[in-house]
Write a structure and sequence with these properties.
By secondary structure, this protein is mostly helical. It is 75% helix and 0% strand. The longest helix is centred in the middle third of the chain and has 34 residues. The radius of gyration is 19 Å and the shape is globular. The model has no long low-confidence stretch (mean pLDDT 85).
Amino acid sequence: MMRLLTSELMKLRRSGVVWIAVLAPLFLVLQGVANFMRYRDSAFANSRRTEWEILYEQCIILYPSLLLPLVITILMALLARIEHGQNGWKQLLALPVTRAQVYVSKLIIACLLVFLNLSVLSAGTLLAGLAVGAEGAVPYGLLLGRGLLAFIAVLPVVAVQFVLSFRFSHAGVPLALGTGLAAPTIFAANSEHFWIYYPWTYPVMTYFGPSMEKFEQDTVMYGIAAALFALFLLLGFREFRKRDMM
């Protein structure tokens, strides 16, 4: 199993997938810092929120509702394309490995890429705040804790895109479906009751929910996220095990 994971990591080095996971959140941090500095002495001067809270909000404002699910869609599609192209499945499954090992190793790499993406955003915001001298105590729970919870919240999205990307050899199918599923997120998140039934809203609620009066189902949400993650992956594995990948 470790050799398989090592092989998967080596494939990533040649694919450029890691750069997408890293550069996308860094761009958001730079944009957020630019907005913060531009309005620091005007629009944000009389705010009741701390400078750390304002900076954090500027860095993540579009991230959980739109960019995060789109980045996950792209990451999963590119990860699957490594095997879909140039008879990758035929070569991989010819090795002395089981399909379960292949499936789990791909899943671990997929989750690591998403965790890296979330970690870069959290760490980047923290470093940016220190660099610009944001006033007040550093809210580590806000900057780092929300990132960890967001990883749990986004697991259903990861599972759906993971299964779709490895199910369809043409990358356009999971990309189109992922984009379509991400589009209603903002509208669903603004619904008082419907949002809990639409997993794409869970990252939004993780980042912004604690400040909303309607957010009273946080524990339930994370439990549902974990359950859906397991369910989608189980269904995906059953199909992966039976399908002719050659």
